[in-house]
Design brief:
alpha/beta; FAD/NAD(P)-binding domain; 6-stranded mixed sheet; 4-stranded parallel sheet; 6 helices; 15 strands; FAD/NAD(P)-binding domain-containing protein; FAD/NAD-binding_dom; FAD/NAD-bd_sf
Length: 247
């Protein structure tokens, strides 16, 4: 690969796992005359699999955010100079052969890939676009969880299961409840995993309510879920110091 004065761009919108994988492959396979341009509004790559734990355990939140250049080039010897460019911006407009950034810059492309990831509620996904702000979001969740005497998590998927077990493991005296709409936790993985998870939750002292889809009635602070109630179809209404909902 030999860098040229005006290489054609392959633009990747989004900084997801898919976009990182694509950028790595392209950096190892593009011929001369092309380059990869990764456009992502966040300053750092967000590693969401640790967000639930770092919402509970203090002092590790900074580890969840990684510079994009380090990810693309990590363990990847032989990536030539000039083949990769990173633009920290959101895309405001996509045309037939160009993208317009929020800054007003226009990038012409030969090929375009859109890999913006998924959308999910906190703590699986954070709002802040810079590392400092994202760390503050996680610290805010840590404070909320630490201050609440009773906590309910609505949604018994992987994130909900991890969050309640981390909370109860870190704060064994808290009243922790997991509510799930189906009759089996982690239903896409089979019954044996559900049985094992239920055994561990019973040991930890977590209350599990299956087959329930309650109405979440938020308190004064609708953004944080503090001092909220869950209204069940049976007519029962339970109050919690904090409610985190995943549906």
């Amino acid at each position: 690969y030999k860098p040229g004065p005006s290489p054609k761009s392959i633009v990747i919108i989004g900084g997801s796992f898919a976009s990182i994988s694509l950028a790595r492959r392209l950096c190892h396979s593009l011929p001369s005359g092309y380059k990869v341009v990764l456009v992502e509004k966040n300053t750092h790559f967000h590693y969401p699999f640790v967000f639930p734990r770092y919402s509970v355990v203090k002092g590790h939140e900074r580890k969840a955010f990684i510079p994009y250049d380090e990810i693309v080039f990590s363990g990847r010897k032989g990536i030539p100079d000039g083949i990769f460019e990173r633009r920290c911006s959101a895309v405001s407009e996509v045309a037939r052969d160009s993208v317009k950034l929020d800054s007003g810059d226009v990038i012409d492309f030969e090929f375009l890939a859109i890999a913006t990831g998924t959308s999910s509620p906190r703590p699986s996904k954070l709002v802040s676009q810079d590392k400092h702000g994202a760390c503050e979001e996680l610290r805010g969740l840590q404070e909320q969880i630490g201050d609440a005497e009773s906590i309910a998590v609505v949604g018994g998927g992987a994130v909900g299961v991890e969050l309640v077990t981390d909370i109860k493991g870190w704060y064994p005296d808290k009243d922790v409840t997991l509510v799930h709409s189906r009759n089996r936790l982690l239903h896409t993985y089979g019954a044996r995993l559900h049985d094992r998870v239920m055994e561990e939750m019973e040991k930890l002292g977590i209350t599990v309510r299956l087959g329930q889809r309650p109405q979440v009635q938020l308190g004064n602070d609708v953004k944080t879920g503090e001092h909220a109630t869950l209204a069940f179809s049976s007519g029962q209404v339970d109050s919690f110091g904090l409610v985190v909902s995943y549906f």
